[in-house]
Specification:
Elements (H helix, E strand, L loop, with lengths): L12 H13 L6 H13 L5 E4 L2 H11 L7 E4 L6 H8 L3 E4 L14 H4 L4 E5 L10 H10 L3 E5 L7 E2 L2 E2 L6 E5 L12 E4 L6 H8 L3 E3 L5 E3 L10 H10 L3 H18 L21 E4 L9 H10 L15 H4 L9 H9 E4 L7 H18 L2
Parallel strand pairs: 2-3, 2-4, 4-5, 5-8
Antiparallel strand pairs: 1-9, 6-7, 8-9, 10-11, 12-13
């Protein structure tokens, strides 16, 4: 039986041939394909200006710089995310202020944000865990009331929406990732949706060493930029992926519906919210009833692998990492996130899966859990 990974990109032959054409063109770093990709993304997001970068992490870093956030500032975010969400705040010289998650959505608990706001708070970075958007209406009402910037960590949200509007087509700064495990990929990469055209020059300088070139070949540098430009190779992959994002999302929703239909709810696992209007179903995550089992999460994942099924952990609670404990965070600070971080398991979900694959996963889970009950 073939191994079923928890995710796999869907790249068609036309895209592969397009990458070959880029390689043969002799122009493989940032060039015409990047500009074409940025224009296509702008169209997708309703005409908003977009700039592409070599990672979703870089887009967050640049967004913080565009907001002028630095030493002495605080940025509110969630402890339930890939660690990059908090690391970029540290890199900016600011302090991450974590707010616990809503146990149902597993996103930042918007009801707790205002209690975490201080005179040093400059921005909020919400995360749409597994592609389920945080409540944008409530989020922006809080931000507006306290005059805070919002940098949406929409790394997992490509194809998701809020009240019928695409994530990225509205709001403040919106950061997307096109990593290989995302709903659309450029192999590595990301994009930042900007507020207006006036932000483009600084965003472009920040992604390539701060350099500004004049038509006569001279250049100047007035800001210390980095090196985070996207290549034409990666952009060509993105150009092949973008037209399929709607179909990818619908297929993921179909597979998620089948998970709910097949899952044995007597096993005691926590299931994600059944949202088929806003979520893009980037991941399907369950919470294991570890207090009822005589195996650990690691042993559960290993038993899934023995059945040729992959599974992942997304994510451990950020504040419990050694780096963040060194900043004063401790176990017990954010119990909801800690609980999800201990119990979460990501199941296979990607467009090329079959409904039979979903049934196979559900059958394996039932077999393992029933055999491990205390």
């Amino acid at each position: 039986m073939a191994f079923l990974p928890f995710t796999r990109p869907s790249i068609d032959e036309e895209t592969i041939q397009g990458v070959v054409e880029v390689l043969r063109s002799g122009w493989i770093t940032s060039g015409p394909r990047v500009r074409e990709f940025e224009a296509a993304l702008s169209d997708y997001f309703g005409g908003r200006p977009v700039r592409a970068f070599n990672s979703g992490t870089a887009t967050l870093e640049v967004a913080l710089q565009l907001c002028g956030i630095g030493p002495g500032d605080e940025v509110i975010t969630t402890p339930m995310s890939w660690v990059a969400t908090a690391n970029v705040i540290l890199h900016a010289g600011a302090r991450p202020v974590f707010v616990d998650i809503d146990p149902v959505t597993r996103n930042i608990d918007l009801e707790r944000i205002e209690a975490a706001i201080t005179p040093a708070t400059r921005a909020i970075i919400p995360v749409d865990l597994a592609g389920l958007p945080a409540d944008r209406d409530r989020l922006y009402a809080i931000a507006s009331k306290h005059k805070l910037r919002v940098i949406e960590d929409a790394a997992q949200s490509m194809g998701a929406s809020w009240n019928g509007k695409k994530i990225g087509a509205f709001g403040d700064l919106v950061s997307f990732s096109f990593h290989a495990n995302k709903n659309m990929t450029t192999s590595e990469g990301g994009c930042l949706v900007l507020n207006d055209e006036s932000q483009i020059p600084l965003a472009e300088k920040l992604r390539l060493q701060g350099v500004v070139r004049a038509p006569d070949g001279t250049m100047d540098v007035d800001v210390a930029g980095g090196k985070s430009n996207l290549t034409d190779i990666a952009a060509r992959i993105g150009l092949g992926q973008l037209p399929h994002i709607g179909a990818f999302t619908e297929r993921r929703r179909e597979l998620a519906r089948h998970y709910f239909a097949c899952f044995d709810r007597t096993l005691g696992c926590g299931l994600p919210p059944e949202n088929f209007s806003d979520s893009n179903w980037h991941m399907f995550q369950i919470l294991l009833p570890l207090d009822q089992l005589n195996i650990s999460r690691g042993e559960f994942i290993e038993r899934m692998r023995q059945r040729e099924i992959g599974a992942g952990v997304h994510y451990p609670a950020i504040h419990l990492f050694t780096l963040y404990r060194g900043l004063g965070f401790r176990e017990g600070d954010f119990p909801e996130a800690e609980g999800v971080g201990r119990e979460t398991v990501t199941l296979p979900l990607f467009p090329d899966m079959s409904l039979q694959d979903v049934e196979r996963v559900c059958s394996a889970i039932r077999e393992i859990i029933e055999g491990a009950k205390k």
